[in-house]
Every structure is written in C-alpha cells, then in structure tokens.
Amino acid sequence: MNNSSTTMIRRKGRWAGVMLLLSVCLLMLAAWTTAGYTSAASTSNSAAKEDCTVNQTARKHYVNVAVATLWTEPGLARQLDAPSLSNPVNMEKWTANMATADQRRWLTGKTETQALYGQEVRLLKVRGDWAYVAVIGQSTPRSKYGYPGWLPRKQILTTTTGAAYSKCPVAIVSAKTAKLYDTDRKSSLLTLSFNTRLPVVATEASWLQVHTPDNGTAWLRKQDVDVYDQLSDIPAPTGAELVQTGKQFLGLPYLWAGISAYGFDCSGFTSTLYSFHGIALPRDASAQIKEGTPVSWNDMQPGDLMFFAHDNGKGSVHHVSMYIGDGKMMHSPKAGKTVEIISVDTPAYKKEFAGARHYLN
C-alpha cells in the first residue's frame, strides 16, 4: 500500500470520532448572534459545558492574517515589503516583489520568524502601531513564551472567546495552500498556508465550517485538510511520510524566517514538516540539534535531520537538512535557491557536517 492510500484510510477512520465532537460544537452555533458566539458556559447542555468551557476573563491574542512576519525591530521594512505588513496580507505579491537573491538576502537578520492564521501569540509589549509578541508553540532558548519578534498590531486580534473552541476537532491544512471561504462558500476570504490550524464547528458533505480568530465562521474544503479530534491524535509519522510531505515543496524559493508555503528558511522547513506530523521541534537549527537522539553518518534513516556548522563542523550550527535515503538530503538552502534534493557528499556541506539527530520512536 502506498503512502497516499495509507493517508486516505487514516482520514476516513477519523471521521466517526470527529462527528461525535462536532455534535457538541454544533450546539454553540445556535448561540450565534450578530455580536459573535455566546459563551459555551451559557448553554444548558452539560456536555457542551464540559467539553467547550470558556473562561470569559482569559484574554488571548491570535494572528489574524494568513501569514504574519515578525521583525527584529519596528520600521525596518522596505517599500516592497508593504504587502506583508497589511491586513489582509498578500504573500504572493510580497514574494514576487523580491525578484532577486539580494532582495531576499536583505531580510537576513531583520526578520525573525512567521506565524500562521489563528496561531496564538503572547503579547509582550506595544510600541505605537507595532506589537512585540512571542509565538506560542515555536520553542526557543530566547524566550520561555515562544519565538519573539515585532509585527504590526493590526495583524493580531484579542478575544476572550477563543478558548471556547479549544476542545473541538482541529482542521490542519494539508495542501500547500487552501482557500478559506465566506458563508456563501463561493467568495474566498483568505488563502491559508500549509499547517494552518483552525477549530471545526460543523461539517457538511465536502465542507468543514471552522471558527476564525475574529469569532466568526468560514468554510474549508475537506480535501484540503486533515481533521483530528485532538492534536494528540495525529499519528506518529514514518521517516518516509516526513520525506513525502517535504517533497511537495521542491522548487519553492528560500525565504529567511519563513515557515509557510510561501517560503521556508532551513529550520523553518524542518520544524514545519515535523509540526505537521505532530512532533514539536525548536524553531532554530542551533536548538534542534540539542533534541532527539544522535545518529552517526552511516546509521542515518529517512526523516533524520543533518546539521552543519562553521569551522568544518566544529563551530556554531548554521544549517539543517533532512536525510531522505539513498545518500541524499532535502533542504531549503539559502537566498537565491529553492527547496532541493542533493547528495550528502556535496563537498560544501559534507565538510561542515556537525552531526545528525533522530526524533521518531
């Protein structure tokens, strides 16, 4: 049986559990008003109270654009970066604006990371129209809260009702990109990136209704997502499945700080592939090498990560790739290049090899 068939069987097998939880979440739709959803605590159904409890005093902050780019400081952006600073963002236009390797290389050291639509961030401070946040779920030694950086305040939204949906099924975008549709299911609201995650509140034929950061609802096509009752239900991947997931991005131009289908940096690529399969790795290569189990050059298996360091592999780690078998590795190398597969014996990389890590059971 091939990987695509295995994935199809897994998806079909999960729908029974998903439908059960959806019956709970559907109760919340009846409480919808022009001001948004009412608290799950106000429903008379005891199961809904237990499964979708909301703390009305818990103010949380969520990314409210398809892809938010975090900067090292406010005010660094160039005119060509404007499409990435708006709400909504236009990632296609922004990446197209950077027509040369130098224009992409300019971002090095100026941008930090990215966060996807609906992702929770911790608000650390505000400076004018900018907010300093930590991306929850992107671990780093730099902050106990998550990966830090600055983004326009208009790209995040504060709400007290997001927690009401924390126990609903979760849709994870499995396609490279997926259209998020308005209530008529004809008008596209946003184009979401691979690995975007949203709570599911209803299902209908080939559609899923999801809760959005602004406390509204929108629709996704089932074919574009994987659905789980809870994130812990994501099946442990094989190395071959990790490799297959990564191969869909071959040819995608490198983007410093990128973690989306519009461009990855080296560690954004590896951490996103593992994240999609339910395994949390640190955001940066220098931290990823400290996790997992060391593997020798001759014992590497598909899905293992390979690390590269300055001073012929003895200095600081500056790059990471994924071993895919048959003496080859896949990576997002640098500005001006694309996600590619090359030999592990490529001299420029082999001389800087600093070790490999295995993260699968």
From TrEMBL:
Protein name, as recorded: Peptidase P60
PANTHER family xrefs: GAMMA-D-GLUTAMYL-L-LYSINE DIPEPTIDYL-PEPTIDASE, MUREIN DD-ENDOPEPTIDASE MEPH-RELATED
Record-annotated NlpC/P60 domain positions: 236-360
Signal peptide region: none
Keywords for the protein's UniProt record, in alphabetical order: Hydrolase, Protease, Thiol protease
GO BP term (any one): proteolysis
A molecular-function term among this protein's GO annotations: cysteine-type peptidase activity
Domain of life: Bacteria
InterPro entries according to UniProt: NLP_P60_dom (IPR000064), Papain-like_cys_pep_sf (IPR038765), Peptidase_C40 (IPR051202), SH3_YKFC_2nd (IPR057812)
Native source organism of the sequence: Paenibacillus bovis
Family the entry assigns: Belongs to the peptidase C40 family.
Pfam family, any one: NLPC_P60
